[in-house]
Amino acid sequence: MTGDSMKGKLEIRLGEEFKPAPQLKKLYYIYLILGTLLGIFTWYIPILLLPTPLGVKLAISIPILALLIFTAYWIPKYYDTIVYKLTEDEVVWRRGVWFKNTGVVPYNRITNVDISQGPISRVLGIASLKIQTAGYSGTRLAEIKIEGIKQFEELREFIMGFVRGKKPMAVEAYEEENIDLRILNELIKIRRLLEKSLEK
Fold it and tell me: Is the separation of the CB atoms in 60 and 161 below 8 Å?
């Protein structure tokens, strides 16, 4: 994976919006073609070849064709809505053609950033960053995915640089909830020190 990413200075700027690489659209189209070949044509072609009534063939073919045309039209529209932004405190994302989705993930909630790259993405020279966060019921699902990035290793290091400089919010909450236990432990230590000094 190391040799596949673009080396050098990261082209993404702090506080400026950025989009996935155009190769992400190609990836979506390749998925559409593979999904059509494997998920539809494997059962659709035999139906066409069998002596099936024309009305049945049309009833199956028209919805499939409409779905494929709609998906091919939707892919560039969806790609155009995907926007990411890194600020000094958080990762911001926005996407959605009809239903707009926006999210903000503070660096102090991020526990890990994983790189995800399948064989097709590798050929296209892109990868996705899966950002894991603390405090979501122990689920291992990514809070957000930054998809279609060419300089994925550099971007991961850039984000992790902010994460390392922040104290995780989950740790802060845990410490606040267990303050009584921390006080008790400190008192026990003080007592042991006093006992040792009295023995001397």
Answer: no
141, two tokens: 């699902």
Beta bridge partners of 18: 84
Q: Which of 67, 94, 91 is closest to 81 using CA atoms? A: 94
CA-based torsion, 146, 150, 152, 155: positive or negative: negative
Backbone angles phi, psi at 151, to 5 degrees: -95, 55
Helix/strand/coil percentages in the chain, nearest 5: 55, 20, 25
pLDDT one-digit tens code per residue, 57-74 = 899 899 999 999 999 999
Measured distance CA(47)–CA(41) in Å, rounded: 9
Residue 148 burial class via C-beta count within 10 angstroms: exposed 0-12, middle 13-18, buried 19 and up: buried
- pTM here is 0.71
Tell me how far CA of residue 42 lies from CA of 35, 38, 45, in angstroms.
10, 6, 6
Rg (CA), the chain: 26
Residue pLDDT, tens place only, 168-188: 554 444 444 457 677 777 888
Two tokens, residue 3: 């040799």
Secondary structure class of 111 (helix, strand, coil): strand
